[in-house]
Amino acid sequence: STEQAENVVSITLILAALSTIAGVPLNAAFGRRFVIMAAALLYTCGSAIVACSVGINSLLLGRAVLGVGVGLASGTVPMYLAEMAPAEWR
After folding, report:
1. Helices (H), ranges, the chain
2. Rg of the chain over CA atoms, in angstroms?
3. First-last CA distance in the chain
4. 52: closest CA among 41, 37, 66, 62?
5. Contacts of 4 (CB under 8 A, 6+ apart)
6. Interior CA angle at 87 toward 83 and 90, to 5°?
7. pLDDT at 90 over 90
8. Side-chain half-sphere of 15: how many Cα atoms within 13 Å?
9. Percent of the chain with pLDDT over 70
């Protein structure tokens, strides 16, 4: 249905926005490399859940996990790249 399609799309966006905010204290506590690796693991797990989903609930779960991965990566990777760039490039 249309409502289910809206939920599948929006759950990823909502959790991405929330996990971007939650990523700030995680970066401070565990470091950027750890958070990037956690985001990659969440991408992998979320993709596997979506690929194996047999109903709307498992599809929503997979998209939720993907959303958290997207949010963590979106807030962390740009900072990490800026820190790793040579000083003359910044």
Report:
1. 2-30, 32-52, 56-84
2. 15
3. 48
4. 62
5. 56
6. 75
7. no
8. 20
9. 100
